[in-house]
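Hi P.,

Sorry for the delay on this. The queue was packed all week, but I finally got your sequence through. Input first:
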Amino acid sequence: MRILVAGGAGYIGSNMVAMLTAEGHQPVIYDNLSKGHKDAVKDCEFVKGDLTDFDMLLATLKVNKIEAVMHFAAFIEAGESVEKPLKYYQNNVCNTNVLLRAMEAVGVGKFVFSSTAAVFGTPQQIPITEQTPKDPINPYGETKLAVEKMCHHQAIAGKLHYVALRYFNACGAGHNATLGEDHKPESHLIPLAIFAAMGKLEAIKIFGTDYPTPDGTCIRDYIHIEDLCRAHLLALKKLDKETESIYNLGNGKGYSVREVIDTVKKVSGAVPEGGTFFKVVETNRRPGDPPVLVCDSAKAKNELAWQPKWTNLEKIVESAWIWHQNHPNGYKE
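Then the structure:
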């Protein structure tokens, strides 16, 4: 299929493009490079464009005879969304509306949307299923839920077949550890701990050590980028049979902040002879951090025949460590 990958030069998007290409599809990247990196997709068909540009989207869909769209072009920082909510509503909701209108105008009816576990807020039950009540606690989660609803109503109107995939914590490096995380600024735990192990940060911070968890730190479900991308391939097939579907994607196992840091220490060997590991600073909780977020992916496993292959945290961290060792300063551009 000819697939438009919005945000295809970003972390998840570039890994998706590589997997689509390997599977014989023809991805067309649509990215304004505000967050993405040209080096991550240098050998791929690329259109530099913004989701605010209806006419460019229309032309891109027509000229490239696009059959389906995957959307990875959202802003994703929950903390920033609290400080700049309008920025998140503009990009994540309004711009997605422009994309869906362009798709409708040219008759492209297949859509795979990157949603998030943030739609659940602080869940009352663990593990989290698709039926767990949605109650976002920040604008980021609200905007993702708004797009899910927009897709739902567009599907009811008979104008869209969509799958929404609710990610938990995407991590690791894919495509033989050649495509990794390079956010500026970086806020994700695994790369930040790797930066500390590489000496790029003086210390790694733990935000809150008094949560009701075994070691007092937050617990999260980490899913490797390749497992996420594989779910998107399976979702494409689902679009031929179903009008709308929503799936949670996670490993179903949680790791605490301390466990992740200890795993990075182990993988990196970041300890000098007779010395100590990189510095860990304990500080106050961040507002809006739920104690535990762990996924129940039974629905995706049953309906998509999806099965995570990267189930070992150490292996996931190893892939990220390799990428950062080979890209100490991130992508060149």
